């Protein structure tokens, strides 16, 4: 299937798993995640991708899109100074098992991190943990 065609599909379509409506007492984050699963993945914003990734939702599709955004924006971010990004943090803080299962994405994240030089202390901490956890993943 073409990458562009996948972008028109929702996470529900791609995963083959339609979630029911969230329980009425759900938090706003839970309600947002349920709603975002019903949008075409190619239309998700960086903020929305960060929310999904932070909840480990749709990682086979959301992580590559996030890395694409990060790869495109990283060079310009260095020009603006101090870099602190929710999408980057969400991606970096995924479990080591996630990165081990996707070595190409791990290499891509390492390449992105090489470009970013002026990170916030929080992102530096996330970066160090990612690099340590993904050491040896190729």
Q: Could you list some keywords that capture this structure?
A:
138 residues; mainly alpha; 9 helices
Topology summary:
Elements: H1 3-7, H2 11-15, H3 28-36, H4 46-54, H5 59-79, H6 86-92, H7 96-101, H8 103-115, H9 121-133
Helix pairs in contact: 4-5, 4-6, 5-8
**Main β sheet profile:** none
SSE ordering: HHHHHHHHH
Give the strand tally: 0
Shape summary: globular
What is the beta-strand fraction? under 5%
Helix content: 55-70%
Structural class: mainly alpha
Number of helices: 9
Q: Measured on Cα atoms, how large is the radius of gyration?
A: 15 Å
The low-pLDDT segments are none
Q: How widely separated are the two ends?
A: 25 Å
Calculate the mean pLDDT score and round it: 89
């Amino acid at each position: 299937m073409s990458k562009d065609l996948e972008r028109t599909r929702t996470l529900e379509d791609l995963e083959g798993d339609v979630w029911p409506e969230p329980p009425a007492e759900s938090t706003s984050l839970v309600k947002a995640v349920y709603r975002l699963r019903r949008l075409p993945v190619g239309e998700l914003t960086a903020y929305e991708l960060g929310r999904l990734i932070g909840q480990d939702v749709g990682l086979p599709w959301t992580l590559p899109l996030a890395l694409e955004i990060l790869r495109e924006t990283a060079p310009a971010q260095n020009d603006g100074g101090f870099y602190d990004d929710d999408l980057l943090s969400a991606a970096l803080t995924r479990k080591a098992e996630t990165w081990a299962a996707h070595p190409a994405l791990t290499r891509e994240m390492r390449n992105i991190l090489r470009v970013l030089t002026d990170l916030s202390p929080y992102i530096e901490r996330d970066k160090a943990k990612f690099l340590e956890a993904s050491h040896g993943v190729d």
